[in-house]
Amino acid sequence: MKRISFAILVFVISFSLNATAQCDVKNRVQADGSMMYYFEPAVFYSTKSKSLKINIVTDKEHYFVSLQPIPFPPKQEGKKIKDDLVIHLNNNKSYKLAHYDTQYRRNDSIMQVLYLIDEKDIDAFSKFEAVLAEINMEGTEFIRDYAFKLHKDAIVQQLKCFLKGDGKKEESGK
Length: 174
Hints:
Blueprint: H1 2-21, E1 26-29, E2 35-38, E3 42-46, E4 51-58, E5 63-70, H2 75-78, E6 85-89, E7 94-105, E8 110-116, H3 122-125, E9 130-137, E10 142-147, H4 154-166
Antiparallel strand pairs: 1-2, 2-4, 3-4, 4-5, 5-8, 6-7, 6-9, 7-8, 9-10
């Protein structure tokens, strides 16, 4: 009986550690003094010539999809990226996310483009995997399509962590 109880205890502890490891939220202070919370970017697409990393970033009021495309245009060209992002989810719907900001970080070795998730679309993004992203990369080949191959559920998992942490409940039927 003691062995069974011990085995159950070990299982519960390992499950709890796994669950908290998935919600490893990082934070950084922006230049304006505001705090941003984020996850390490997940690779959604990768070939020999290009790749795309995505993560969710929030200021606890708004939620953003952050893209890190490679290759990315030089800073003077990249700052011209102002178009919206279209993401297709596996519910067979597409969602337009408004361009928010284009940033070059770590001595311009990383380009990050932030797109605002509309409040009415948070529910869909927290339930359905991403399938495809359409990005207008000004100064390059115009529209780039990225059919997601890896970590398709990263946006769902990251949003769930943030929403759970914010005390918001997942709503259905929005």
